[in-house]
Amino acid sequence: MLNRREALLAGVTAGLLSAPARAAQQSGAWPAFPAEEIELWPGIPPGAPPILPVEQVIETGNAQRHGRMVKGIARPRMKVFRPSKPNGAALLVTPGGGYSVIVIDVEGYQIGPWLAERGWTVFVLYYRLPGEGWANRADVPLADAQRAMRLIRARAAQYGVDPDKVGALGFSAGGHVCGDLATRSEARVYDPVDAADRLSARPAIAAPIYAVQSMRLPLAHQGSRDMLLGPEPSPDVQRAHSPAQNVSAATPPCFLAHAEDDTVVSVENTLEMRAALKAAGVKVETHLFTAGEHGLGLPGPAGEPARRWKELFVAWARAQGLG
Predict the structure, then answer these.
(1) Do residues 49 and 100 touch, judged by C-beta distance below 8 A?
(2) Among 111, 225, 270, 303, which residue has the fewest nearby CB atoms (within 10 Å)?
(3) What is the enclosing helix (H) or strand (E) of 69?
(4) What's the pLDDT at 26?
(5) pLDDT tens for each residue of 77-93
(6) pLDDT for position 299
(7) Alpha carbon 164 to chain centroid distance?
């Protein structure tokens, strides 16, 4: 039997699908990759290897329930989900995948339409994977996330977005990207390329969901740590890339959600992040669920509280003035 993380990677879920996506799934079709996209970098991204990785889409589901994953990302970009009635707020969404792939359907293309139906303009980020030959590997995902935030703000008028109402939401390893962005938004991890880079990369709110956080063993998720930092990282490198170690009063308000029975990424990652946020005086909303494993919102017993995390997030975001 598949565990929750295996089910997530196989795409056997409809819990986050919008009504049109559910109808498409039931008919055997699947929503196409959104046509509208924003390239992050002019030309080849910084720190490129001599031979660029070749992008691959890996299908782990079936004709009825796709579960696409992507790797070999040499052209980092954002896919855009526009709402029919914009509420003026935007979210940068960073899917997970252990820093070895990006789980683009389950943690990107399903939550994107759901949020867009509620007025959010959603930008799903294809970030570069650190183990694919890029220089300064540990900061490559953060560089893409910073650049993405700045581009969203630079084009805010085009999308009907208030540049002060741009948040970040990430899952698993993508939750680490989100947490890193929240705590190191102004760290210089790339050389400015245009006027957009004069804008702030700090998200107005951040929501690392069942997130990889610590890079210290035994708490760290080993696979994500190995891909991000390489073999045998020093204590200083581990600390520099553990978001709880970088929380400050400048960190934006955070929404945290995790299941106690998550055997892939320990809930202690979220507890450590919460403690750091509280110590710094940063507003934090925390939801810990008895059951839900890794991949909140996947099919489970009717009424399972973990399946309600997204409604809780939207209510909290609105209370912060977004949405």
Answers:
(1) no
(2) 303
(3) strand 68-71
(4) 36
(5) 999 999 999 999 999 99
(6) 53
(7) 19
